[in-house]
Amino acid sequence: MEKIKSFLKGFGKGFKKFGEGVSNVVNFVLLTFVYFIGIGITSLFAKIFGKKFLDMKEGEKSYWKNKEGEKELKDYKKMF
Amino acid sequence: MNILGISCFYHDSAACLIKDGKIVAGSEEERFSRKKHDTGFPFNAIKYCLKEGEIDVDEIDYIAFYEKPLLKFERILSSHLETFPKSFRAFVGSMPSWLNEKLRVPSIIRKKLKYKGEIIFVEHHEAHAGSTFLVSPFNEAAILTIDGVGEWTTTSTGFGKGNDISIKKEIHFPHSLGLLYSTVTAYLGFRVNNDEYKVMGLASYGEPKYVKNFRKIIDVKKDGSFRLNMDYFVYHHKMRMPSEKFVKEFGPMRKKGGEITQRHKDIAASLQRIVEETIFQILRNLHKETKCDNLCMAGGVALNSVSNGKILDNTPFKNVFIQPASSDAGGSLGAAMYLYNSILGNKREYIMEDIYLGPGFNTDEIRSFLKGNNIKFKEFKDDNKLLKKAADLIHKNNIVGFYQGRMEWGPRALGNRSILANPCNPEMKDVVNKRVKHREPFRPFAPVVTYEDYMDYFEAKTQVPFMLFVYPVRKNKRKLIPAVTHVDGTGRLQTIRKDWNPRYYQIIKEFEKLSGVPVLLNTSFNIRGEPIVCTPEDAYRCMMGTGIDYMVIDRFLVAREDNPKDKWTSWEGN
Ligand SMILES: [Fe+2]
């Protein structure tokens, strides 16, 4: 009985690991697809039209950015 | 009104409960989970806060989260778009945690806590600003928040008046003093988001010979704004920090655990110099703009106690308050305070005068723990006798764990979860290191000094209740307290007043009677790599697993040698 229990336990653990492995592979494939299609194409178009996503140029007079105005309670209910 | 503040999923998860504007409880999750810098959902810390506040989840009026996840996600996506295709690995590595938790904050909170009320998202640097100004003793103050990065912001300046905070200006990612510091931390073979203070300690051994090299990397304007030359960094698209160009500039990276050479020390010193210069430039401008002599600071970089100790000499500010939990843990407190005072417009009700906001255990609970585990101990009916005995043990060069009352909020042990030792013994730093802390030999130990005497021992500009400022030890005292005098003649002191922590104060006074010195070596009650102890069990395990000789725990004295070592010899052993 003990042996069967430990076999089942081991089997369960192995199956869980296998499941995790499969989900990692699926995640990887999906994320690769999203990266090269979604991010890649957008980035390509952005480069063509000269759009910058990070402000990295030097030599400006000041690097401070002014903070936008007042917010209300309803603005704080949003995640953005 | 009950507001629960939460910070999690990045670094130092924490929870904090405020009731009608007063903080009733706060703790980092790591203290319960025993995982250092635990980033997970702070379920245990929340459970503790509600228990301490004697409320149920349905009595929470608001939950305040310490940042805006979608704004942060926008920054992550922008970095990937900007750096495509170099960011592929970072994208694949980081997206699962975004999809599984970081973008699902509301549903995770509701599900885990069965909470049905409002959730408020305060911006990361607003939360930092709230964590300092709104609990400071000032009615008006200039505010500087400075860290690695929040959503987009890495540095912000503003002004606080009454219950209002207005952030005026910001520096945005990827330009960040915190990330510059972390990059050098990684370059020097230490752990990012953990070992920055080691670089600060190492800096004291070096000469700032590489300042010129750093000037190529950071462009600081007269108005204090700055920009990094991103050719020297890869953190915006890789899981690493310094670029090959950085390595070319400074020489080969130090491998983890490798020898620390003079070059490494000089690089650390140069970084520290550049960071200080930049902070002071920002502060001088902030003073000019606000015309206010009071300053409040928070954010991870505000834990740079060496730089903090120089603020009053290098800027026009006259008073400084820094949030003791300035890293992201403090964001939970800041978000809750910001919501209560600045968003909802309530009057300020709280000044942070001590930080004993964590769990406490009463005498009966501790006695029953000791008895229940067959631990040999001595109970002292007369507390004076116990403190006298403890001071005598310290004077005889024993290492004494000092455990009492509620646990500290923030990264420093300030007398309730402390290890105390004799600062007058020149060997004591090595002894504590060898037997308990196993730290790198270049890192200093900190002194705690009584309020009446700190000016005699330190060239301090202010009292330092939260151990956030490093000041020079007076030249004529350095030989008296060698174990807490750093190589450059400084100490990261804590000043203690009787009314802040009477027993902690008294043990120093008793030590003074024996040694003539009102100073003790104080270090956190933990082993290297582990969080500070929380429960009596954590403390006992820590003592038995290390070379701590005695533990004063509430009214009890426990000696290591009286108890069987084979029972709880280490954390892993159980
Ligand atoms: Fe932060």
Strand order of the largest sheet of chain B: 13-22-21-14-15-20-16-19
- N-C termini distance of chain B: 42 Å
Rounded mean pLDDT score of chain A: 86
Query: What CATH architecture label of the largest domain in chain B applies?
Result: Alpha-Beta Complex
The CATH superfamily name of the largest domain in chain B is: Carbamoyltransferase, C-terminal domain
Kindly provide the radius of gyration of chain B, computed on alpha-carbon positions and rounded to a whole number of angstroms: 23 Å
Q: How many strands of chain A?
A: 1
* N- and C-termini, Cα separation of chain A: 56 Å
What is the general shape of chain B? Answer: globular
What structural category characterises the helix and strand content of chain A?
mainly alpha
> Number of domains in the coordinates of chain B?
3
| Derived structural class of chain B | alpha/beta
The residue fraction in helices of chain A comes out at 55-70%
Task: Give the number of helices of chain A.
Answer: 2
**Helix proportion range of chain B:** 25-40%
Q: Which range does the strand content of chain B fall in?
A: 15-25%
Describe this structure in words.
- The complex is a heterodimer of chains A (80) and B (574).
- Helices cover 64% and strands 2% of the residues of chain A.
- Chain A has a domain at 1-50.
- The N and C termini of chain A lie far apart (56 Å).
- Chain A is mainly alpha-helical.
- In chain A, 6% of the residues are buried.
- Chain B is α/β, with parallel strands linked by helices and 574 residues long.
- Chain B folds into 3 domains: 2-66 and 68-121 and 328-343, ATPase, nucleotide binding domain (Nucleotidyltransferase, domain 5, 2-Layer Sandwich), CATH 3.30.420.40; 172-319, 2-Layer Sandwich (Nucleotidyltransferase, domain 5), CATH 3.30.420.40; 363-566, DHBP synthase, CATH 3.90.870.
- In chain B, 36% of the residues lie in helices and 18% in strands.
- Chain B has 20 helices and 22 strands.
- In chain B, the strands form 5 sheets. Chain B has an 8-stranded mixed sheet with strand order 13-22-21-14-15-20-16-19, with helices on both faces.
- The chains are: A mainly alpha (80), B alpha/beta (574).
- The A-B interface holds A 27-28, 31-32, 34-36, 39-40, 42-44, 46, 52-56, 58-67, 73, 76-80 and B 68-71, 74, 77-85, 88, 91-92, 95-96, 105-106, 118-122, 156, 158, 167-175, 219, 221, 223, 225-227, 229-230, 236, 339, 343-344.
- Fe (ii) ion binds next to helix 6 of chain B.
- Fe (ii) ion (FE2) binds at residues 124, 128, 147, 150, 299-300, 328 of chain B.
